[in-house]
Amino acid sequence: MSLETLSSEEREIVTLVREFVDKEVKPTVRDVEHANEYPEAFIEKMKEIGIYGLAIDEPWGPGKVSTPCYVLVTEELARGWMSLAGAMGGHTVVAKLLQDYGTPEQKDRYLPRMATGEIRATMALTEPGGGSDLQAMRTVARRDGEVYRVNGSKTWITNARKASLIALLCKTDPNADPAHKGISILLIDKEQIEGHDFGGTDTGGGLTVSRDLPKLGYKGVESCELVFEDLAVDGGQLLGGAEGAGFAQMMRGLEIGRLQVASRALGVGRAALEDALQYSQDRESFGQPIWKHQQIGAYLADMVTKLTAARQLTLHAARVYDSGARADMEAGMAKLFASEVGMEIALNAVRVHGGYGYSTEFDAERYFRDAPLMIVGEGTNEIQRNVIASQLVKRNSVAP
């Protein structure tokens, strides 16, 4: 943990979340995860604690915490169950987008209810044929009088059924050159869609939540496909009120998104290390605890060293983000390194547990199933390397 730089109030928040995880999540999460059930009781407790309002400032919420505090809260949640951190990840990005770019009316309408968790939000970026190439999207919103008519599809949308607000990245000018100048963000409010009961019905008014995608890990929280068929969206739902700004807006939003994914990786890695450490002291072979065997001790040493380095890199990126400076390179480095470290630690935790690491009676196998998401989510690590290299050269340009 790295609580030293936080205010006393922020330290209390992190401690409160840690206690929630230790007392309520960890004792029951294995059964909930294996049943692939939506964690309603956990989500309600997260609302009560105030987790959905961590990124929302006054007067709409209780006051946002620093990004380092947010990183450590996310780590704690993911230490208990990565899906819980995922259930508030996209919500945070949308809250940041609204605070930074929303019109006064948009802020007043959504942020107070988002702060309590009454409204939960998600973002819709990825398309079935587009992957990480967001500028190649085919979802189009055409102006038709006072509304936009939206057609297209999105995939891998976390919280698509449970969220009542969707920040949709789409093209309002498909012919724009360069392409990113024609991209905007529409705020899709399910409460405004005629015939769409977001608490139950999956289809209505031009929006279909077509199916839940089956996943290796990341259980409990749904990831869905969305289909838009001539969906009418009020023109006042254009984020910020100006077309063509959506790509730049979302790129800034993804900085906090990638920090959130890096923090999830820290939580999974930390949980795997803690379990491996305990098991290696409890389990004996050849008359001694297995941590004393050279190879097991080496695993533990590498795990804690890399996890500590990943956390410090993520906290560094969080501080850069809070400074107001461009942080895509720093967030990309944090996401890249933390996710690769999280995957390595999860694998080595299985090695430390031996055959029991492959058993569903132990949590090590869950960490190993959850860890890959952070490598491919919020922009694959291959994309992160491109972002890092591009910004590195731009910041250190050697002009002829």
In short:
The protein has 400 residues and is α+β, with helices and mostly antiparallel strands. Helix content is 50%, strand content 15%. The chain has helices spanning 8-25, 29-35, 40-49, 67-80, 82-101, 104-116, 246-282, 294-322, 328-353, 364-376, 381-395; strands at 121-124, 140-144, 147-158, 165-171, 183-189, 203-204, 207-212, 223-234, 284-285, 288-289.
Task: List the SSEs and their pairings.
Layout: H1 8-25, H2 29-35, H3 40-49, H4 67-80, H5 82-101, H6 104-116, E1 121-124, E2 140-144, E3 147-158, E4 165-171, E5 183-189, E6 203-204, E7 207-212, E8 223-234, H7 246-282, E9 284-285, E10 288-289, H8 294-322, H9 328-353, H10 364-376, H11 381-395
Parallel strand pairs: 1-4
Antiparallel strand pairs: 2-3, 3-8, 4-5, 6-7, 7-8, 9-10
Helix pairs in contact: 1-3, 1-4, 4-5, 4-7, 5-6, 5-7, 7-8, 7-9, 7-10, 8-9, 9-10, 9-11
What would your notes on this structure say?
This protein has 3 domains: 8-116, Butyryl-Coa Dehydrogenase, subunit A, domain 1 (Orthogonal Bundle), CATH 1.10.540.10; 121-244, Butyryl-CoA Dehydrogenase, subunit A, domain 2 (Beta Barrel), CATH 2.40.110.10; 248-394, Butyryl-CoA Dehydrogenase, subunit A, domain 3, CATH 1.20.140.10. 50% of the residues lie in helices and 15% in strands. It has 11 helices and 10 strands. The chain has helices at 8-25, 29-35, 40-49, 67-80, 82-101, 104-116, 246-282, 294-322, 328-353, 364-376, 381-395; strands spanning 121-124, 140-144, 147-158, 165-171, 183-189, 203-204, 207-212, 223-234, 284-285, 288-289. It has a 5-stranded antiparallel β-sheet, with helices on one face. Strands 1-4-5 form a 3-stranded mixed β-sheet, with helices on one face. Strands 9-10 form a two-stranded antiparallel ribbon. The radius of gyration is 21 Å and the shape is globular.
